[in-house]
Here is the input.
Amino acid sequence: MSNKYLVTGGAGYVGSVVATHLLEAGHEVVVLDDLSTGHREGVPAGAEFVEGRIQDAGKWLDPSFDGVLHFAAFSQVGESVVNPEKYWRNNVGGTVELLTAMREADVRRLVFSSTAATYGEPQRSPITEADPTAPTNPYGASKLAVDHMISGECAAHGLAAVSLRYFNVAGAYREAGERHDPESHLIPLVLQVAQGRREAVSVFGDDYPTPDGTCVRDYIHVADLAEAHLLALDAATGGEHLICNLGNGNGFSVREVIETVRKVTGHPIPEVAAPRRGGDPATLVASAQTAYDRLGWRPSRADLAGIVADAWDFAQRLAQEKSAAGPTAAQESQS
Here is the structure.
């Protein structure tokens, strides 16, 4: 059955891939994005695009919508530490307005893009949804605050909601991939070295209690992630707030990622040793058992080389597009 969904933040990395999957499933999609971090070209063909803030979602939401998938959030951990008010205002305040607009328009289904950052420093691995939530930065705290708000909305007003706590998302799908600026994610950073856009990759700490001394993270292909969102829409139940971790359940170290990029791209990747970053846990790996049981979800693209290969193909296409487009106005003014 075809439904109509609002995708907030649908011009961003994950939101655009989810919007693409919704369209491929035959649904009607409206993307709401203010393009502060998203990209107009990331909105998939076939989706209606509305430029605007989540605080103004009420201008477009009406009872014809069957649900909302909410990705509109700032997500830079470092920035959240130095500018926390930006994160409270948008991630928390914006979601208050979105939930109000949904209630007033009688749109009663929500899938929320949450994060493993809600857990903070994990006490064990793999992490389950029952583990303590103790975020170590305002970004993670803002996402946890939204999860609490959603729980209250479900209990008080019968909202059907699912929060999906991502671990490390990577890869690309069709025309959608990572376009972050600045970039902070490991795989695209290492790919920038392979492209000659960066001299070396920094390895922040090599003395962790892991097999090779570098941090271990759980990488999930963005297309697997997107499929979980469609399953979450089906699983959402009135009055319940379901929270699910999404990950492969396997960890890869920083050095394993770098070596995989070397093999996939055929390029040498110089490394530079750097001090540990504050707040970096040695290991972050998800238990996705709840998603298996409640959503019927299974990741099918868990191979790290395949994830890297998809990300590499997208990075190469993006570089070719930028080259074909010629210098930007800013570059021309400097010449």
Remarks:
- The chain has ten helices and 14 strands.
